Amino acid sequence: MSWIQLRINTNASIAEKLGDFLFEQTDVHSITYLDAKDTPIFEPLPGETLLWNETDVLALYDANTNTLDLIELIRASEILQSSFQYKIEILEDKDWIREWMDSFVPLELKNNLWIIPSWHSAPETNSTNIFLDPGLAFGTGTHATTQLCLNWLSSQNLQDKLIIDFGCGSGILAIAALKLGAKKVIGIDIDPQALQASRANAKKNQVEENFDLYLPKDLPENITADVLIANILAEPLRALSQQIIGMVKLDGNLGLSGILDTQVDNIKTYYTDNVSFDKPDNQGEWVLLSGKKYK
């Protein structure tokens, strides 16, 4: 079976609205949002969809779709200007699921730590192996910020320690900590879907018994950790700095990521009264700040 792909150039403010319209009003098989200018974008917060300033909306249809009627339907919706730019492409028949799966292979990080899609076997059975499938909503190990956090965790002595994963998303960092010897991990996230994803991934990796998950409003009082890892974004790291500091034991370690290199100095100002920072760890434009709580 062949396919028709409709590519519409738009912007982030209306791309998702257009995608919703196509799902509701047409027989579309899939919608993809593609960066029209190859602009880097970081992983979204759990439950959040981030789009680029200039976005291509790619809609996939059966080959017998009447594209003239489709374009007129979009024009009549008035979501876009009547002169909107689009392109219609014929796609060859492929096993799309297999092609998607083949594009993901086991990922080796530092200190013999591996992230492995569930359809692959572990390349090394004596390594620290995390089985996690690629996804859109939560961290899966492919982004620089997640890799920075995983590499940092693998360099820490986590044996028998209590860890807090602040903004746990998929649970990848918590699962890594448990497989690296942590006694217990507390995962916190504002999105119930993230907690569900973390719970499912922990079960897949057989570490669910030592992984407690909470929405912020349900978190028990006065919990402090030996190690806290927060892979979120600069703004919540600023806004929640006192809460984050308060959840770390004296002499405990912090790892803060989701920070651009241009934001490092500003982020530090919110923590330096309580945290002695190590040299930042960079991967491209992204930075992980780590340090020890001394006060």
Quick summary:
The protein is an alpha/beta fold.
Description:
The structure is a single chain. The radius of gyration is 22 Å and the shape is elongated. The longest helix is centred in the first third of the chain and has 14 residues. The protein has two domains: 91 residues, Alpha-Beta Plaits (2-Layer Sandwich), CATH 3.30.70; 154 residues, Vaccinia Virus protein VP39 (Rossmann fold), CATH 3.40.50.150. With 295 residues, the protein is α/β, with parallel strands linked by helices. The strands form three sheets. Strands 8, 9, 10, 11, 12, 13, 14 and 15 form an eight-stranded mixed sheet that branches. A four-stranded antiparallel sheet has the order 2-3-1-4, with helices on one face. A three-stranded mixed sheet has the order 5-6-7, covered by helices on one side. It contains nine helices and 15 strands. 28% of the residues lie in helices and 30% in strands.
Give a quick set of tags describing it.
295 residues, alpha/beta, Alpha-Beta Plaits, Rossmann fold, 2 domains, eight-stranded mixed β-sheet, four-stranded antiparallel β-sheet
